[in-house]
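Quick check before the chapter quiz. The format below is the same one you will see on the exam, so make sure you can read both the input and the output lines.
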Amino acid sequence: MKRKHKILISIITLMVISVVFCTVFIFPHGGLLAVPKYLSDYFGDKTWELYSFETLSEKQIGEEIASRALMCMQYTGDEELAPDVGGLSHYYWFHYRERPDHIEAYVTLNKTIINGDNGIVWFTYTQVLYNADNGKISGSWHILTRCRIARDDSGEWIVIGTSEHP
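Here is the expected output.
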């Protein structure tokens, strides 16, 4: 009887450890274990999207959108030559008074949710623009962004709107 009791306790312990591991390391796998209060106040109930399940195909779509956002953030070329990126266009440098000499930017995909031909992509970014003297023009660090996306007639996913904490 004691052997069965030990086996039962071992199984229960293993189950508890598995639940804790999944809760902490797998389910919120976008790198956000807890959303800060100021962000949950700003985004409201939408922050729960960060804890939803994500398929591999959804993740691939999100990576494509995050890659496009990074391309915009790193672009230092002329406005007339910039690719059309829909709702991501505000990540280009054009609204600054000074043209940057170089830009450091990083984008981390947090979560992608697809529902038919629409979806949501969450990413976190850092972008720092420098002039020729290596002085900072502007910078944004660890900004959580929620993008609304839609599939266009050609099947490409485009960003139709973004929101981030001001």
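If your answer matched, good. The chain is about 30% helix and 30% strand.
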